[in-house]
Request: fold
Amino acid sequence: MKIDTKFLGQVIVTPEQLYSFEEGIPGFPEEKQFALIPFGKETPFILLQSTKTTQIGFVTAFPYTFKADYAFDLSKQDVEALKIEKQEDIITYAIVTLKDTLPNSTINLLAPIVINTKTKQGRQIVLNENNQELLHYPLYPVKEGVK
Reply:
């Protein structure tokens, strides 16, 4: 299927790349189907693109690339909504906020995107933590004495 994307122009996606978000994504409840589209082989970034609306696409990344000890618990409601049977069936992404340069960009670890690869369902989970550092977690470590 051909879709128009926010960042990559028109691309062909396969059924394996399509995921259903029954509740949409916070702020976009009408967007129910997204495709995961890699930006390339040598990058940790992947596009979460609405299949319906060109301008609704999110740069995401595997959060453990940037914070190796990242962890959170899924609620029973989230597990049921995503029909998770085994932890191996899920993959987690986080939305990247792009700034003027990549080193100034951040990743939102307070609202991960959890995808059940077996059932092809996804959901953005808003964690109940009050940690602003996780909301705008740096993609690159801040060097001492450099801002």
Observations:
- The radius of gyration is 15 Å.
